[in-house]
Amino acid sequence: MLRLYDTRNRQVGPVLPEGARSMRMYTCGPTVYRHAHVGNFRTYVLSDLIRRVSERQRIRVIACRNITDVGHLVDAADIDPEGEDKVLAQARAEGRTGLEIARFYEAAFLSDAATLNIRPPEHSPRATETIDLMIEMIAKLLEKGHAYTAPDGSVFFDAASFPTYGEISGNRLDRLRPGHRLEGADPRKRFHADWALWKPADREMTWDSPWGRGFPGWHVECSAMSLRFLGEHIDLHTGGIDLRFPHHEDERAQSDSAAGHEVVRHWVHGEHLLFDGRKMAKSTGNIVLLSDVVDAALDPLAVRLALLEHRYRQQMNLTWDTLRAADKTLRRWRSRVAGWSESPSRAMPAERVSAIEAAFDDDLDTPLALRLLRELERDDAIAPGSRFEAFLHLDQILGLDLSIDIGRAPSLPPGAAELLRQRERAREARDWAASDRLRDELAGLGVKVADTSEGQTWSAPGGGGAVDVPR
Fold it and tell me: Motif range for 'KMSKS' region (predicted)?
């Protein structure tokens, strides 16, 4: 049974009770005002891995991942109605409407998620299409005494009404300091840690409500959508570590106050992803998109494999060298699977496969799982047909398309064709030292070269026999 680290309880434990056959999982989705970078996708690969491991255990997963297309301000902590919505800010910059921006970047996100083999959720509600749910929830919180209105039409959550606030992040109410505002403390609030559920405004992407025209606060969106699509008992809530506070603290307070009990059983967070030792940010110029990986002639699933090389709750530093290494491993595994597919099928090595599956079950110990998989790859004492069945079985969890080269003609990795041409010219010039050096370089790319009476031939990842080198 899958065991994960619960951020709220500070311990690893079973995600589901013994005998449970279904799991309800909510994941905070993207704010669709720009392209999601590879760091953003670490959270979604985490949720997908949880889903795949659970489904291999015959657990039915009902997942919900929202689309935030309104309400997320440029400064997420800003409750000023004049604060600019991220979607609208980008719309102004690109000369399009907010809805056009949201739909464009939503489509881009879904395309990238599919490219990374992230299975789609059963529910993917948009904030702009569920405003009625948020208004209903705010009304319920007001009725139960967990929220209050301000004269300008704002509605705030009363943080003091939820005494267990801070259990996820450790940021207790009595330790929170007021935010920095030029004009001092917000006079509309009873307590400086209260947050806005409804913000008055009369501009694009606003709606009528019992408190006047405006738009919902970012935090209330996930509460309303998760309760509507997954119900009042949610097994697992996932997100990036940066969402622990204030987003998930606020969401927990809202949901539990509306339902009257603890809604989410387990909170699971993925750690930050750095690139070249720095946080991915537009200001630092090190944003890496999935399209950048493809433009570098790397398989986009090399990103997924690189993410699996580290445990989800450990900070990870991704580099281009890391991605190139993952791409090389991915191509080699696909080549091995294609080669093994030509051997008679054999039963999987049960103990080896069970050990790898146990690593996944143990708080998603993906580094151990991959190390055991590499050992299996190298163990020639195990029949090729047996390794073939094991790799395909485990790829249902890995999601790396390891069978994609079966039946394909041999193909050269990037740069290999030019090296082959250089080697052919070196042999024609009887430059044997250069010929040997180029053979070694090709071997480093996974290309084996053989010299025959009719010229050199090669064999490469994804192929069967050697073929003549192209002129």
Answer: 279-283
Q: For residue 175, what is the DSSP state?
A: G
Assigned architecture for domain 3-270: 3-Layer(aba) Sandwich (3.40)
Classify 15 as helix, strand or coil: coil
| Cβ-contact 202, 213 below 8 angstroms | yes
Local structure of 428: helix, strand or coil: helix
Is 222 annotated to bind a ligand? Reply is yes
Q: What is the pLDDT along the chain (471 residues), one digit of tens a residue?
A: 999 999 999 999 999 999 999 999 999 999 999 999 999 999 999 999 999 999 999 999 999 999 999 855 554 444 334 456 788 888 888 888 888 999 999 999 999 999 999 999 999 999 999 999 999 999 999 999 999 999 999 999 999 999 999 999 999 988 887 765 445 678 999 999 999 999 999 888 899 999 999 999 989 999 999 999 999 999 999 999 999 999 999 999 999 999 999 999 999 999 999 999 998 877 777 899 999 999 999 999 999 999 999 999 999 999 999 999 999 999 999 989 998 998 999 999 999 999 999 999 999 999 999 999 999 999 999 999 999 999 999 999 999 999 999 988 667 788 888 898 899 999 999 999 999 999 999 988 888 888 877 678 787 654 433 334 444
- Where do the CATH 3.40.50.620 domains begin and end in the chain? 3-270
pTM of the model: 0.86
The reply to whether 328 sits in an annotated binding site is no
- What are φ and ψ of residue 426, in 5° steps? -65, -40
The verdict on whether residue 72 carries a ligand-binding annotation is no
Angle made by CA atoms 273, 125, 55, in degrees to the nearest 5: 65
